[in-house]
Specification:
The protein has about 450 residues and is α/β, with parallel strands linked by helices. The chain is about 25% helix and about 25% strand. The chain has eleven helices and 21 strands. The strands form five sheets. A nine-stranded mixed β-sheet has the order 6-5-7-8-4-9-10-11-12, with helices on both faces. A hairpin with a 5-residue loop joins strand 18 and strand 19. The structure holds thymidine-5'-diphosphate (TYD) and magnesium ion.
């Protein structure tokens, strides 16, 4: 018999090498190569292929009756683009303790209760009594929800065959192992193989599946990142340490938009949807303080008001520090350059920090003007007038460019009590007159800042 072929696999990126190396040549991570044994080669050729799938004309493919099934947890449904898709596989990543198990137990319970769907919660981390305790704590007692404490993939498949669930959670992919592989649970080859086989099962038996994956601190070893390309949807569950608020961010979605966010609060009875995130993100804002500007950004279909903070302080020595959190650092550098050259603000010898309060990321050029306003406000030590919001893209010549969906943003700001909006002239013309907000159009950054800081 040919001895099983072994190789060294990088636990960070999956690169394979015949011999051990101290540093992965692919991703540059040190000490990440671990010996793994290859699977017996699968049969090659025509006779090895399953005969079930046949090519057919697209026009003759039957239309799915109902695309998404609502879970009933509004913020989760929003992040998923309407609900779960039959046979769809969703990866939910996040730090340990952030609330992944809680959220998905609530989701399964909701689905099985509302829709009468048979649901299976497979936990490789907790015993069934622990899961029961959690469900009791959350006040859940759905009849059609099954729990299973198991880490062996083949044993899980046997139970799936018995229970025949329509929706399933695997908590977590890092604990599940397949007997077909020698490498330990959590290694990249185990995680990849088990995920691939779970996906296969989900598609064949039309089981909507959630895979939980821990993001590890040291650059996600065999973590969710290595699986992103395999699954249909990738959600990241995030939160600031010490805060009870959680944000569900969409990193990938084959069935819906990717810029949605879901906002939750972790309480005594589990995760509760936050229906009005703007209110939450602005709740701790101190009015009339220099270095703060409010911007209405679009998160998927929903406008959300966020506070951009900036701080300028004189640099102690050498190169001044430039730090940007929650916004693209390159964009911030560009805005700083425009402030320097086109507005005439002197930034040399000043440490500059920009942060989006609440831990949300902004990746819209619409926030440029807000970033510039916060920076200028801190540099001049003059607050942006309290009832003002601002948006617009800043160009390299110092011009303010129009952005999309201005009216939707203004309406959100008005709803939260803002009375004035500084915006690109083109957007002002497009929106026209709004009775409950004063719109002030600006052509250049210098003009816009004059108005904001007046
Ligand atoms: P958990 O869902 O176990 O996190 P994960 O699966 O991502 O590791 O949640 C763990 C934390 O949530 C834990 O610190 C306790 C807290 N928690 C609540 O505050 N309220 C609740 O109702 C529950 C079930 C947990
Ligand atoms: Mg958990």
């Amino acid at each position: 018999m040919v001895p099983p072929k072994s190789y060294y696999a990088c636990q960070s990126c999956g690169h394979q090498s015949a011999k051990w190396l101290g540093r992965c040549p692919e991703c540059g991570t040190w000490n990440s190569l671990v010996e793994e044994t290859a699977l017996a080669p699968r049969r090659q050729g025509w006779e090895g292929l399953p005969s079930a799938a046949k090519a057919q004309p697209l026009v003759k493919v039957e239309q799915a009756k109902k695309s998404a099934i609502q879970i009933g947890i509004s913020e989760l449904d929003r992040a998923l683009g309407g609900g779960i898709v039959p046979g769809g596989v969703t990866l939910v990543g996040g730090d340990p303790g952030i609330g992944k198990s809680t959220l998905l137990l609530q989701a399964l319970a909701g689905l099985s209760e509302r829709e009468g769907i048979i649901a299976l919660y497979v936990s490789g981390e907790e015993s069934v009594t622990q899961t029961k305790l959690r469900a009791d704590r959350l006040g859940l007692s759905p009849v059609n929800l099954y729990v299973l404490a198991e880490t062996n993939l083949e044993a899980i498949f046997a139970q799936v065959d018995k229970v025949k669930p329509k929706v399933m959670v695997i908590d977590s992919v890092q604990t599940i192992y397949s007997s077909a592989l020698d490498s330990p649970p959590g290694s990249i080859s185990q995680v990849r193989e088990t995920t691939a086989r779970i996906i296969q099962l989900a598609k064949l038996a039309t089981i909507s599946t959630f895979l939980i994956g821990h993001v590890t601190k040291d650059g996600s070893l065999a973590g969710p990142r290595a699986l992103e390309h395999l699954v249909d949807t990738v959600l990241y569950f995030e939160g600031e340490p010490g805060s009870s608020y959680r944000i569900l961010r969409v990193a990938k979605n084959r069935f819906g938009p990717t810029d949605e966010i879901g906002v939750f609060e972790m309480g005594e009875a589990g995760l509760v949807c936050v229906a009005d995130p703007s209110l939450l993100f602005l709740s701790e804002r101190a009015a009339n303080v220099p270095g703060s500007a409010v911007v209405p950004v679009l998160k998927g279909t929903r406008p959300v008001l966020l506070e951009i903070q900036a701080l300028a302080s004189s640099a102690a020595f050498g190169m001044p520090r430039r730090t940007a959190l929650g916004v693209d650092a390159n964009r911030v550098s560009m805005i700083m350059a425009v402030l320097d050259r086109r507005v005439g603000l002197n930034l040399a010898g000043t440490d500059l920090f920009v942060n989006v309060a609440g831990g949300v990321r902004i990746d819209e050029p619409a926030a440029d003007l807000g970033i510039a306003a916060a920076l200028a406000s801190s540099l001049r030590n003059k607050p942006v007038e309290g009832g003002t919001v601002t948006f617009g893209e800043v160009g390299l010549t110092g011009e303010i460019r129009a952005i999309r969906r201005a009216e939707l943003r203004i309406r959100e700001a008005v709803k939260l009590g803002f009375t004035r909006c500084v915006l690109p002239v083109a957007n002002e013309k497009e929106v026209g007159k709004l009775s409950d907000a004063q719109l002030v159009g600006a052509r250049t950054l210098a003009q816009a800042l004059e108005i904001c800081l007046a």
